[in-house]
Amino acid sequence: MAEHAPHGTVASQRHDDILVLTIDHPPVNALSADVRRGLADAICAAQSDSGVRAIVLTGAGRNFIAGADIREFGKSPQPPALPDVCNAIEASAKPVIAALHGAVLGGGLEIALSAHYRIALAGARLGLPEVNLGLLPGAGGTQRTPRLIGAAAALDIMLSGRHASAKEALEWGLVDRIAAEPEARAAGIAYAQELLRQGAGPRPTRDATALQDRAAAQAAIDAARAQLQSRQRGLFSPSRIVDAAQAALDQPFDSGLQTERALFLQCLDSPQRAALVHAFFAERETAKAPETRHAQPRPLLRLGVVGGGTMGAGIAVAMLDAGLSVVMVEQHEEALARGRARVEQVYDLLVAKGRLDAAGKAERMARYTGATQYDALSDADLIVEAVFEDLDVKAAVFAELDRIAKPGAVLATNTSYLDVDRIAAATSRPADVLGLHFFSPANIMKLLEIVVAGRTSPDAVATGFELARRLRKTPVRAGVCDGFIGNRILAVYRQAADLMMEDGASPYDIDAAVRGFGYPMGPYQVADLAGGDIGWATRKRRAATRDPRLRYVQIADRLCERGWFGQKTGRGYYLYPDGARTGTPDPEVLAIIDAERQRAGIAPRPFSHEEIMRRYLAAMVNEAANVLREGIALRPLDIDVVFLSGYGFPRYRGGPMHYADQVGLARILADIREFAPQDPHFWQPSALLIELVESGRDFASLNRA
Ligand code: 3HC
Ligand code: NAI
Question: Would the CB of 311 count as within 6 Å of ligand 2?
Answer without folding.
Answer: yes
